[in-house]
Amino acid sequence: MGRSFFSPGTGDTGTAPFDPARDAGHTDPPPRKGFFTDTSVCIGCKACEVACKEWNAVPEDGIALTGMSYDNTGGLGGSTWRHVAFIEQQLPAPAPDGGRPDTVDLGMPTATLPGADPEHREHADFRWLMESDVCKHCTHAACLDVCPTGALFRTEFGTVVVQDDICNGCGYCVPACPYGVIDRRDGPAGDPAVGLAQKCTLCYDRLSDGMEPACAKACPTQSIQFGDLDELRERAQGRLDMLVESGETTAQLYGHDPDNGVGGTGAFFLLLDEPEVYGLPPDPVVTTKDLPGMWRQAAFAAAALLGGAAAAFIGGKGGRR
Amino acid sequence: MVPDAEFTSYYGRPVVKASPWEADIPAYLFLGGLAGGSSLLAAGADLTGLPRQRRSARLVASAAIGGSLYALVHDLGRPARFHHMLRVAKVTSPMSVGTWILSAYGPFNALATGSELLGFMPGPVRNSRLGRLLGFAGRPGGLIAALIAPAVASYTAVLLTDTATPTWHAAQRELPFVFVGSAAAASGGMGLVAGPLGESGPARNLAVGGAVLELGASRIMQHSMGITAEPLRQGTAGTLHTAATALTAAGAAGAVAGRRSRIASALSGLALTAGSACTRFAIFHAGQASARDPRYTVVPQRERREGRSS
After folding, report:
1. Mind telling me which residue stretches traverse the membrane in this protein (chain A) (predicted)?
2. Are the CB atoms for A136 and A255 separated by under 8 Å?
């Protein structure tokens, strides 16, 4: 839990990096595990979505077309623990200083009617961004902080998991998550988790047996990489440097920084554009960071009410005054 | 005029999730405030010798807290597991803190109401050992409930502000004051409705003071919230918010002007109570709307990030 946000826990002493598993009371935990999702090599195959559903027995959540893009899942939710975003981007022409490398014409269909405008085929001012999104497993996790039943807990791997047999479905974690990840599962009828908060467990059961999560296992391009968080952060930095050097100047890492608003995330991303383009918040902060101030304001307000009520009686029994 | 902020999103889809809560939760916020304020009114009436005001306020408090507990449990995805809230006590979870506040408040409030209900019982019940014990426990029970009552009325603001819902989170400084003002207006208003005119002075003071606090704090709040105040002026939330302001202002004015008339007092009290309910529903719906529109998540966060890097 996030108590360390207010007073440093055992894992926060000296210069050692903050270890959420140790802070949660795990003695001698294994190295913190996480995901590095390199969106630059994602091909949008959605194998991760399927593998996640199959392994975790997550039900389908509506087979409907969104009509907005090839992404018909829409976003993370109670029955979508991995979600591949498809962004169809019309880019301005390359800058004269070569801000973006010359793209290769793959002969993909254009947005115009076939044959209507043959010139358009020459333009390569269109790109697809794909990003496999997932629970971030925050270092300071708002969902875990606000859960009133203790159904959410911190595993020895530093990840955050919901216990189905404890959650009472109060739904408080849903608006608390700054990434909009967790949600209450609303169907289908008969599913044991209906009415309960549900999200990615980072395949806790597989990790416990020394295996990698199903999504990472199924990813054919190594866009989803699983491993020790420290090592992943190094690897991500190397990949970013390589991309920037080759001219992909808008590439950036997202969520990796231990000094960000949630203390760094266990699942972080290499993005090719701004976070909000992918539906990610640009500067998320764990809400409980402000909680001491909120309690203070509530205490002042309570005192005002008590004082006000007392004042209402001053001047005797009142009556028709 | 400030130019529109640069804003991109993923096909306009929300970034944060709106809470899965429905009408139960704003009803719970309103009834909790009504109960808290009524307990204070009852305790004051008890101490200053206004027996009929005390009785009606205690009954209102119990009915309200009963209703709010029902709404709270009814809203759970698995209501049968409501008692799981009592497994842990967490200061980082306003809902956990609130559960314990209500658990402390409820029994003392019940003692006070129980002693009041004794008056309706036949003599043998009143004079039984249990009856006399209950009669004796009424005052201490009511006083202890009144000491916890301000927390019942104010913690619900933290329940909303400790979320990533943009409009709720941005209201963190002023919302507790809006809520306790609203609680005082509602409970004072019900005091005017249910209590006799001859004992209505303190209820009137509480109602008018609460209304002034609610309206004033709400104004300051909207000013400090930036663009996340917009949802309070649009759609369902906007309608409710306008109604809340009008009912509260009219109720307060009527409570002062109509203090010699039983009917005017009762109508003013009803307006104040309805205004308080509208305030809770307006804040609730504004938050839900702010979560559904990615603009309210992205624009303030980008401004914060850019303010830091420059």
Report:
1. 294-315
2. yes
Is the predicted pLDDT of residue A216 greater than 70, yes or no?
yes
**Closest B-chain CA to A315:** B202
Range scoring the smallest mean pLDDT among A107-121, A176-190, B13-27: A107-121
pLDDT at A320: 43
Report residue B224: phi and psi, to 5°.
-90, -5
Distance CA A17, CA A72 (A): 39
N-terminal to C-terminal alpha carbon distance within chain A: 54
Lowest mean pLDDT among A16-30, B25-39, B58-72: A16-30
Domain that holds residue B138: 23-307
**Residue B229 domain-assigned (yes or no):** yes
**Residue B283 belongs to domain with CATH number:** 1.20.1630.10
Chain A residue numbers with beta carbons less than 8 Å from the beta carbon of B189 are none
Task: Tell me whether residues B88 and A150 touch, CB distance under 8 A.
Answer: yes
Burial of A314 (0-12, 13-18, 19+ CB in 10 A): exposed
Helix crossing, B94-118 with B51-74: angle to 10°? 140
Please determine, looking at this structure, whether the domain spanning A25-89+123-292 carries the CATH number 2.40.50.140: no
Q: Is A234 annotated as a binding residue?
A: no
Averaged pLDDT of chain A: 87
In this structure, the number of other CB atoms found within 10 A of the CB of residue B39 comes to 35
Number of domains making up chain B: 1
DSSP B34: H
Domain ranges (residues) in chain A: 25-89+123-292
Chain B contact for A296, CB < 8 A? no
- Alpha carbon of A148: minimum distance to chain B alpha carbons (Å): 5
Contact residues on chain B for A316, CB-CB shorter than 8 A: 48, 201
Contact in structure between A302 and A309 (CB atoms under 8 Å): no
Mean pLDDT over each residue of chain B, to the nearest integer: 95
Which one of B163, B259, B306 makes the best mutation probe of the A interface by having the most chain A beta carbons within 10 Å? B163
Report the chain B residue with the minimal C-alpha distance to residue A87: B10
What does pTM read for this prediction?
Answer: 0.91
How far is it, in rounded angstroms, from Cα B279 to Cα B266? Answer: 20
Q: Tell me, yes or no, whether B256 lies in a domain.
A: yes
Touching B: A residues 224-263, CB under 8 Å: none
- What DSSP state is assigned to residue B225? S
Residue B5 lies in a domain: no
B34 located within any domain: yes
**Cβ pair A305:B49 closer than 8 A:** no
How high is the ipTM of this complex?
A: 0.96
